[in-house]
Amino acid sequence: MIVVTGATGQLGRLVVEGLLKKVPAAKVVAAVRDPEKAAEFAARGVQVRRADYDDPASLAAAFAGADKVLLISSSTPGQRLAQHEAVVTAAREAGVGHLAYTSVLSADTTKLFVAPDHKATEEVIRASGLPFTFLRNGWYTENYAQTIAQALAVGSFAGAAGEGKLGAVPRIDFAAAAVEVLTGEGHEGQVYELAGDEPFSYPDLAAAVTAASGTQVTYQDLPVEQYRKVLVGAGLPEPVAAMLADADRGIADGELASTSGDLSRLIGRPTTPLAEAVTALIKH
């Protein structure tokens, strides 16, 4: 039995859909905070179980009989590590045979704002004794959906990444990697650095948006602190603005790209090209 936590989230839904193409629905568990939101999966034969990262008893019940669990990282700042620890404890007590975790690129060495919780979670998982796989996901191209929409409206977008490159690809690529780990063999103990085959810069992104839309879009580079202030001025909360500005700092420093090739090897195909990803974002 394969359990996917956060199964109604943007990544989780794609993982469940991918699993349903490879294993019987009855062997898939959608572990979710609100089971009503997973009614579509239940109607297709997927087991839906309540699993709240803040409710250890729900986690124990959700993991009962599980062979494999995918822990999709929490998105709750300040609580993430404690929530992950609760999941790991429940998985160990339930006798789970394999725990996969969606971490972040180069979690053990990167300076990214979001990295400490991921690094600490990896350490907790290693210490638990559970067979594990770390899926160190890079950035999703969907992160730039709003940026692209605004750029098309005003003709430009700002950032602080300079000429740095990132290996962002659509969530579907990362979901496919998770499906392979959950259904394939030989992934225990592996740490996969997952990013696109062809890293791109923000000027590359602007050119791709221009080509896909027919509207001229340019990129305006700013110092990191100035960009943070711009984001705050646009109405973003300080912590979110700081995180986004730091992500651009990380891109400039090469922390959101990887030459590992792990992602394309896992999914058995080249990662989605930037032009294709941008076209999809513009259409939607």
From TrEMBL:
The keyword Oxidoreductase applies. Gene3D superfamilies: NAD(P)-binding Rossmann-like Domain, UDP-galactose 4-epimerase, domain 1. Keywords: Oxidoreductase. Residues 2-247 form the NmrA-like domain. Its EC number is 1.6.5.2. GO terms for molecular function: NAD(P)H dehydrogenase (quinone) activity. This is SDR family oxidoreductase. The keyword Oxidoreductase applies. It is an enzyme of class 1 (oxidoreductase). InterPro entries: NAD(P)-bd_dom_sf (IPR036291), NmrA-like (IPR008030), NmrA-type_oxidoreductase (IPR052718). PANTHER family: NMRA-LIKE DOMAIN-CONTAINING PROTEIN, QUINONE OXIDOREDUCTASE 2.
